[in-house]
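User: Before I run my own analysis I want an independent prediction to cross-check against. Here's the chain; please return only the structure tokens and, at the end, one sentence I can use as a sanity check.
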Amino acid sequence: MTYFEANVFKPEKDDLFTDLQAASDNKWLENDFFNKSIAAYQLALHSSIKYSIADIYRSGSWQKYEQRAAALARKHPSRDPYAAYLSRAEHDDWSGVNSRQSYRSALVRLAAQTVLEVGPSFWRYVLVKTNDTEARNQLVRQLKRHLDEEVWYQIKTVTAALSSVELKKLRGAAAFLI
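Assistant: Structure tokens:
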């Protein structure tokens, strides 16, 4: 656990509600991932401070990032580029430092985009699936405490349902960023 995650996104001592699973009818709603998704969203915003995703797309780098991620995914049994990168990093299986860094940069940007796009849908899904009113109110307070009004507007205006594929992508991207 990083310093950032441990100190900014830890549950408050007076929180009455700590288990999303207990207040919901859905197995995907764990308190730990909810907090990590918020932390990942903050990190995704931070990764886009200097150059936005639109700037990177216009420059042509985005296509290179997608190619690098696809190449990593092809080399791993799960076809998950994040797992492939972490596996290669664990075994130091890179042709050079620049190779490792170029893959890392690509995956950070792709993970950031995934978190920025899917995060609001996930939070809306969690709020809708949480049956306990007090738990839902606590989650709303937590989201408002860590996210700005623009994100809150995105959460309120989500129209598409969150798919299991999107949730899996969000989990992988959030884990990679954190």
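Sanity check: Confidence is low (pLDDT under 50) at residues 3-25.
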